[in-house]
Amino acid sequence: MKSEKKIGIGIVLGTAFGIAIGLAINNLPVWIGVGVVIGAATGATFRLKKHPKIKWALISIFSLLILLISFGAWFINLLPIEEMKKDLTNSKVEEIQYLSQNKTPKRGKILAVVTNSETMGNSGKKTGYELTELSRAYYVFEANGFEVDIASPLGGKPPVVLDDDDMGIYDYAFLNDSIAQNKASNTIAINDVSAEDYSAVFFVGGKGAMFDFPENKFIQEIVKKYYQSGKVVGAVCHGPAALVNVTLDNGTHLLENKMVSSFTNEEELLLISDAKSIFPFLLQDKLIAGGAKFNKGAMYLETISHDNNLITGQNPWSTWKLAETIIEQLGYTPKYREITGEENAGKILLVYEREGSDKAKQLIDKLLIQEKKSIDRLLIASHSVIAAMNGEIGRFFGLLGLTSYAKKKSKIN
């Protein structure tokens, strides 16, 4: 067979491959071009008769490339592309029924505290408070009748971290809420806070909290006063850094024998391998050193600890439940809120962790088909990537299968 004919066959096969991938991920022109190039390059390798080792090495490389592209296209096809394309940047409070309808009468005030730290120590890495951990708790408190004030160790405008992958309608509404933004841009210095004005204090996470929460005497005093008087003390993710140096009037550490959750060592080190040299301590270790009974949940999934008037959450995905638990601890039944697709995906992942794939699929059926609820497939797919990063290949494929199952069932819904 002539070399030109082999190249032609390669181009035809490559074009067919490109069309298949392009149709799968809805980007036909680009992938036809990619397919033609790969096909032509593969066909051209057959001209290297005098160099068989090079020829077969190139064929192996192109074959691997095709496999990787095919897998990548299949993975992308599992994602809710249309949902991901939705523009939520102009979301308004008035558009969210939970916030705009059946408003709860005013019951009091809650103080939210955020970090002023904009870098992680001397590493130069940027940080701040996590927007989603503030915005979601802020609106739960407001919806349940509690006005929210925002404080920080130094006051003023603190640095904020926006993670586009996690942003939802509440988070964008917060950015477009003039009242919320005025509070977030003009935070009260913690030493100027009138502690008696609030029913609870909530420490927002963000890696910056590791640097300016632990040694702040005003934070320590507020936490001590609130805890000892029965007021609610809440903290999420890195927010529990506010608790690590609090000593009660009887001389015991606040954390002694308390059930507590925070961002775990495992979660920290997966994202920042040199965290031990960047942070003054690993938060899980520090809480345990203070006498806490550390409640460790699954990685990057909802876990909270409720120890009387001390309520803590493991990570950003714990914020909704933690905020509503604070409302319960204050003596009220939380206002009904439609559970988000992200929360439903979290429930599925927890069932997968504890009871296996079959039970997780049963929950998918229940949520999608029976209850007509939404599921954020992106979160499930993201956890498959986390499994791969941890070298858990079986779990990686198991979660990909779960994502595929959720996609198939979503077409029935």
Automatic annotation (TrEMBL):
Protein family per UniProt: Belongs to the peptidase C56 family. HSP31-like subfamily.
Organism for this UniProt entry: Jejuia spongiicola
Span of domain DJ-1/PfpI: 128-329
Record has Membrane as a keyword: yes
Keyword Membrane tagged: yes
SUPFAM superfamilies (alphabetical): Class I glutamine amidotransferase-like
Protein name according to UniProt: Type 1 glutamine amidotransferase domain-containing protein
Bilayer-crossing regions: 7-25, 31-49, 56-76
Keywords, alphabetical: Glutamine amidotransferase, Lyase, Membrane, Stress response, Transmembrane, Transmembrane helix
One Pfam family from the record: Gly_zipper
Entry-linked InterPro entries: Class_I_gatase-like, DJ-1/PfpI, Gly_zipper-like_dom, Prot/Nucl_acid_deglycase
Domain Glycine zipper-like: 3-46
Gene3D superfamilies: 3.40.50.880
